[in-house]
C-alpha cells in the first residue's frame, strides 16, 4: 500500500488557495459558521440547571426577589436559588415586597428559620443582579418598573425575561419543582435531616431545610399533588424526599388557625350565593386579607360547587380569591374579566386558582358612590365572568 505524500498535498492546497481565493474564503467562513452552530448546539443542550448555575457564578452577589406577599412556593424557590448561589460562590439576599401574613406562610418562615428582607423601594435591592422567582415581572414596590432582571425563574404566564437567564415553564405546577430540577441537573444530593452536608459525597447538596421547603412549596401550589400538576412535580418531590424533615413539614402544614380565619370561613359558607355549579361569597370587612383565600379553599369543597370566589374588604380596598376545579373556568382569566369594569383593579392567576384586588374603589367606572365598590354589582360581574358571559 502506498504512502500519502503530505508535502504534495499541502502544495496542492496552497496552489488551490492562491488560484481560488474567493472560494477558499467562503469555505473558511462556512467552516467557522458550522463550528459556531455545533458549539451553540452543545451549549444549549446542556441542562437548564447547569446553565443557571453558570449564570449565578457570573456575578458576585444577587438579590433573590419574590413576588409581593410571598407564599410557600415563592419562599421555597427563593431559598433554593439562594442555596445554589452560595454553592457556586455567589452571595445571595432574599427579598420581598408587602407582608407575610397567612399563618401557614408565617409558620413556613419561622419553622425553617428563613432570613428574608422586606423592601419598599427599588433602592432597597441588595444587588444590581436581581433574580425573580415565582413571577416574571417586578412589582409591589416603588420603582419596580425600572428593574431589569438578571434572571427569571417562574411557572406563571407572562412575557418577563432575564438579561442572562430565563426559564418560565407554565406547564409546571410549582416554581419549586423547577428549582428542584436545577439541583438534580448539577448532580446535587439531598441531605437527610439527621446528617450534615459534609457527610454526603457530592459536589452540590440540597440541605434538609431547603429540601423540606421545596417539597412544601410543591404541595401547596398543587393542592398536595392533586391539581394543576405535571409529572415533573411528582419527579421533583420524589428527588427531594430523602432530605425532608417530616417534623418540620408537619409543623408548617398544621399551624394554629386564628379566630378571624375560622369566622371568615363560616361567613363564606353561610352567606354563599350559589348559581348552578358556581358559588360567590362576600364576607364583608376583615382585618386579615389572607383569610379570603382560605375561605375560598373552604368554599370550593362544598358538594356541587366547581368554582368559587370569595371577596372581602379591608381599609376600603376590595380583595378577591377564587378556586376552580371546572375545566370551563380558568380562574385567573375569570377574575381578570370580572374586574375589567374597575379602574385601579388587577387580577390574574392559574386555571385552578386566582386572585384580584381593587385598590382605588373611588375610581369605579360604572356605578358607586365614590367611596366604596357596589358589592352587589361586583358579585354580578363575577357570576357573569364565571359563566363566560363577558
Automatic annotation (TrEMBL):
SUPFAM superfamilies in alphabetical order: DHH phosphoesterases
Keyword Glycosyltransferase assigned: no
InterPro entries recorded: DDH_dom (IPR001667), DHH_sf (IPR038763), DHHA1_dom (IPR003156), Oligoribo/pAp-PDE_c-di-AMP_PDE (IPR051319)
Provenance organism: Haloferax sulfurifontis ATCC BAA-897
Transmembrane segments: 23-42
GO molecular function, a single term: nucleic acid binding
Record domain DDH: where: 62-195
UniProt keyword annotations, A-Z: Membrane, Transmembrane, Transmembrane helix
Residue ranges constituting the DHHA1 domain according to the UniProt record: 277-364
Claim: Membrane is one of the keywords in the record: yes
Gene3D superfamilies (UniProt xref): inorganic pyrophosphatase (n-terminal core)
Domain of life: Archaea
Protein name (record): Phosphoesterase RecJ domain-containing protein
Amino acid at each position: 500500500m502506498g504512502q500519502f505524500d503530505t508535502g504534495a498535498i499541502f502544495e496542492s492546497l496552497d496552489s488551490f488557495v492562491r488560484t481560488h481565493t474567493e472560494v477558499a474564503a467562503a469555505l473558511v467562513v462556512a467552516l467557522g459558521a458550522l463550528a459556531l452552530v455545533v458549539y451553540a448546539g452543545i451549549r444549549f443542550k446542556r441542562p437548564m440547571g447547569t446553565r443557571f448555575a453558570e449564570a449565578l457564578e457570573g456575578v458576585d452577589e444577587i438579590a433573590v426577589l419574590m413576588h409581593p406577599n410571598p407564599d410557600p412556593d415563592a419562599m421555597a424557590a427563593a431559598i433554593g436559588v439562594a442555596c445554589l448561589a452560595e454553592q457556586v460562590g455567589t452571595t445571595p439576599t432574599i427579598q420581598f415586597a408587602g407582608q407575610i401574613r397567612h399563618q401557614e406562610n408565617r409558620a413556613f418562615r419561622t419553622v425553617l428559620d428563613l432570613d428574608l428582607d422586606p423592601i419598599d423601594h427599588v433602592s432597597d435591592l441588595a444587588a444590581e443582579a436581581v433574580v425573580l422567582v415565582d413571577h416574571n415581572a417586578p412589582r409591589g414596590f416603588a420603582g419596580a418598573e425600572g428593574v431589569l432582571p438578571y434572571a427569571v425563574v417562574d411557572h406563571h404566564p407572562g412575557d418577563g425575561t432575564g438579561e442572562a437567564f430565563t426559564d418560565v415553564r407554565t406547564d409546571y405546577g410549582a416554581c419549586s419543582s423547577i428549582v428542584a430540577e436545577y439541583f438534580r441537573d448539577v448532580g446535587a444530593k439531598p441531605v437527610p435531616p439527621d446528617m450534615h452536608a459534609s457527610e454526603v459525597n457530592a459536589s452540590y447538596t440540597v440541605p434538609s431545610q431547603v429540601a423540606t421547603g421545596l417539597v412544601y412549596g410543591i404541595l401547596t401550589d398543587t393542592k398536595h399533588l392533586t391539581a394543576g400538576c405535571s409529572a415533573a412535580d411528582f419527579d421533583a418531590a420524589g428527588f427531594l424526599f430523602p432530605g425532608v424533615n417530616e417534623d418540620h413539614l408537619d409543623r408548617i402544614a398544621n399551624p394554629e388557625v386564628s379566630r378571624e380565619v375560622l369566622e371568615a370561613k363560616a361567613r363564606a359558607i353561610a352567606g354563599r350565593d350559589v348559581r348552578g355549579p358556581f358559588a360567590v361569597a362576600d364576607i364583608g370587612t376583615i382585618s386579615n386579607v389572607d383569610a379570603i383565600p382560605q375561605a375560598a379553599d373552604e368554599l370550593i369543597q362544598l358538594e356541587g360547587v366547581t368554582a368559587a370566589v370569595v371577596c372581602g374588604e379591608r381599609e376600603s380596598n376590595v380583595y378577591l380569591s377564587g378556586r376552580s376545579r371546572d375545566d370551563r373556568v380558568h380562574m385567573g382569566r375569570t377574575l381578570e374579566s370580572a374586574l375589567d369594569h374597575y379602574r385601579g383593579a388587577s387580577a390574574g392567576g392559574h386555571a385552578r386558582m386566582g386572585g384580584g384586588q381593587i385598590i382605588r374603589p373611588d375610581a369605579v367606572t360604572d356605578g358607586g358612590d365614590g367611596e366604596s365598590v357596589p358589592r352587589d354589582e361586583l358579585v354580578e360581574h363575577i357570576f357573569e365572568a364565571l359563566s363566560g358571559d363577558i
